[in-house]
Amino acid sequence: MKQLRFLLLLLLMSALSITMDAANNNDRFTVNGITYRISNITAHEVDFEGTNKSGNIVIPQTVKDSVNIEWKVISVYYGKCPNMTSVTIPNTVRKIYEGAFGDSKLTSITIPQSVTEIEDGVFSNCTSLTEINVASGNTSFYSHEGVLYGKNNGTPKRLIQYPIAKTGGTYSVPEGVVSIAKRAFQACKFLKTLSLPKSLSNIEKDLVSSWAQEVSPFVYSWSISKIEVAAGNTTYKSVDGVVLTADGKQLVVCPVGKTGDVNGLYTIPNGVEIITNVAFSTNIKIKKLIFPTTLKEIKPYAFYRCYELMTVTIPKSVTEIGVSAFSACEKLTEINVENGNSKYDSYNGVLYNASGTELLNCPAGKTGEYTTKASTITIKEGAFSLCKKITKVTVSNKVQAIESAAFNSTEAMKQIVFATTSSLKEIKGDKVFTSSGIEKIDLPASLEVIGEGVFNSAKKLKEVTIAANSNLQKIENLAFYHAENLTSFKFLGSCKLQTIGSNAFAQAKKLQSFAFPKSVTKIGQSAFNGC
Fold it and tell me: Which residues make Cβ contacts (< 8 Å) with residue 520, sequence separation at least 6?
């Protein structure tokens, strides 16, 4: 009998070992409608990863899987909780990840004592959230009037999140706070006037990518029309509700809801030399701008998605304009440049460098067809990005390169035409034609490289032809990945193609055939997977 019991115990241990060996970090399992992610299989630790359940969600301290193995819940991971209105977080949770409660219906939340790390953007698009509370005894975080702060030695130092639906038209950040997180006030609905303390020294900003996403504490916070700075602040000051550096040389933040005068005209203060990145981004009121003669630099995404901006004239003093500085301004029809500017020029309302060799920015409100300037050599990163009213672009014959995201999100653009004498050598960088309206493209014989991700998710694209006597040598990784309607890829004659990269045509599900040129020597992994 003892021997039988011993054998049964060995079998049970063996089964448990097999179960554990079969599981891996990042595996998921669901219990009672809640999904968990294994984060540390050795320590038996998991993350809460979302649920479709509605109402109040109680996250347990521990959970048993289908084979009765117990796991400890130690974090709230990025997931989806679309129907959650409230949540109880156990005192075992140490970390809450970016987007963990994003898009949920949360109205309030209490962070437990155990949490020591909260990533930025945890509550993104929680449009019903009115307050964030923190349990007493938490040494890392603090709540002030329902606003979440990070502590340093017990003192609130960093404003992390102002709840989107918090009521009240004014808010004063407490003295002692030194930093505002880069998503802190995004999309807040009711705040009109914000007061910043003397201690504040850092308004955080970031670019998630060089073309796609702007991040600042105030993006889409359309209710805010005025930001005040306390007297004595040595880093910032406020002029007419706009935040400048203390010396007045850099414009840091223009409130998204700032109106300018009765005609929507805003005059940037004299003495400003630099307009910092995303400074005016997503403003919904300003229609026209007057730049000071002192202005030297306009940083990337400075005026990104200024919805009402109609026209701008760059003064002759400006020597630097960052990528996508005026992108996605849907009513902006022309970008002009003052005579005498040594760095920039305008051609038919489109921004170029002074020599006309680089096409920098086509305004998003421009309509119809456009032919690039005859002198153009490079169509720069994001040049036509989000130009949703352009229907056709004719590329002049001196153009040699088209850079990343150049025609991203140009839904109305059905044609791009290259001259028969085209000099185009390279289409490079990610998502050049992603979400464009192009259905057919004829690529010139001069083209040598189709870069990584160029037609990634170009879902309207149906037909690609490569001209006869083509110099094309490389189709790089992910070049046509998920071009889900691509049915035809034809070589009209000889071609020098040598390399087809990994996943180059993966998930191009309608591609019917591909005739390999005899010159091809390398085909990457999963190049045609899912075709």
Answer: 497, 498, 499, 500
What is the tens place of the pLDDT at every residue in 165-180? 999 999 999 999 999 9
- For the record, the structure tokens of 49 come out as 């990863």
Does residue 141 contact residue 119 with C-beta atoms inside 8 Å?
no
The H or E element containing residue 203 is strand 202-203
- Contact by Cβ (8 Å): 59, 48: yes
What are the structural domain ranges in the chain? 14-135
Topology of 14-135 in CATH? 3.80.10
State which amino acid sits at residue 528: F
What single-letter amino acid sits at 314? I
* Nearby residues of 298 by Cβ (< 8 Å), 6 or more positions away: 274, 275, 314, 318, 320, 321, 322, 325
- For residues 497 and 47, give the distance between their C-alpha atoms in angstroms, rounded to a whole number: 47
Q: Across the beta sheet with 179-180, what order do the strands follow?
A: 141-144, 147-152, 155-161, 179-180, 202-203
What is the value of pTM for the model shown?
0.89
Contact in structure between 356 and 373 (CB atoms under 8 Å): yes
DSSP class of 269: P
Q: Given this model, what pLDDT does residue 205 score? A: 86
Sheet holding 242-245, edge to edge: 236-239, 242-245, 250-253, 274-275, 297-298, 320-321
Residue pLDDT, tens place only, 110-161: 999 999 999 999 999 999 999 999 999 999 999 999 999 999 876 679 999 9
Count of residues making up the chain: 531
- The pLDDT value given to residue 214: 56
Count Cα atoms within 13 angstroms, Cβ side, for 98.
Answer: 7
Provide the strand spans (E) within 59-177: 62-64, 70-80, 84-88, 95-96, 108-111, 117-118, 131-134, 141-144, 147-152, 155-161, 170-172
d(CA 325, CA 329): 10
Task: Tell me whether residue 422 is exposed, middle or buried, using C-beta atoms within 10 angstroms of its C-beta: 0 to 12, 13 to 18, 19 or more.
Answer: buried
Whether 21 shows a pLDDT value over 60: the answer reads no
Cα–Cα distance for residue pair 266/238, rounded to 1 Å: 15
Rg (CA), the chain: 28
Mean pLDDT across the chain: 93
> 76 pairs with which residues across the strands?
48, 96
Q: Which residue, chain included where needed, has tokens 């084979």? A: 67
Rounded to whole angstroms, the Cα distance separating 274 from 295 reads 6
